[in-house]
User: Fold ABC transporter ATP-binding protein from Neomoorella thermoacetica.
Amino acid sequence: MAALLEAEAVSFTYPDGTRALQNVTLSIPEGKKIAVLGPNGAGKSTLFLHFNGILRPQEGWIYFAGARISYSHTALQQLRQQVGIVFQDPDSMLFAASVRQEISFGPLNLGLSKEEVLARVEAAMAATGVKDLGDKPTHFLSYGQKKRVAIASVLAMEPRVIIFDEPTAYLDPRSTREVMALLETISRKGTTIILSTHDVDIAYTWADYIYVLAAGQVIGAGTPAEVFRDAPLLEAADLARPWLLDVYEDLKNKGWLPLEAPVPKSRDELLALIPYRSRSRLAI
Assistant:
């Protein structure tokens, strides 16, 4: 599948001397769900800021849709219409007086007709479950509501790629499930999604492909099963193994699953592998 976003030998150092990225090369296929994992300071957020031109590589190149990114004002405006970022802290994104004004801001700046802007705003509000908040001041929203409005403001731009930096950080379990369900809905419509997360269980069950960063370098990549069954890689990146894989390996070791049993991607897939007579003895 053709790459929509690419980093080629990208390096970047902040003015204080922090080496954030070192010769990073990776490829994001269109329409896929990509997780970028790694400890704090690994370079994940810095990489994301390169993907939509907020930061410019000091070495190397970023490509979008096969073309090297240009950093002229017009080219960056066009890029940011296609590559949206939802930052970890929604307060860093929200500035308008009301929810509807916030979500309208991006489409209005595209020069669209009022009818098209209204249609996009209504669709984005409906998709994110904030339609009843349209006239509410953004500073009166709960943290979870602010997250949804921030996502809606990017959705209304109808980008081809949406990048989520720690989308479930500080959310309760219910809100986390709702946000991940929303990301799944967005993905099914063909939008390419990239996210960073410290939640290995989310990364394992959700992603099609994973990149692992540490100290500004890509130290591993592969399918979720490949990445999370690579013990040296997990140790190098200070990552835990998802509970689903731990249970799967334990059941195989106890003889409750055949050695050739496929690696499950979800709780339901794991339960389906267990012989019926054995399920009543398990508490998963």
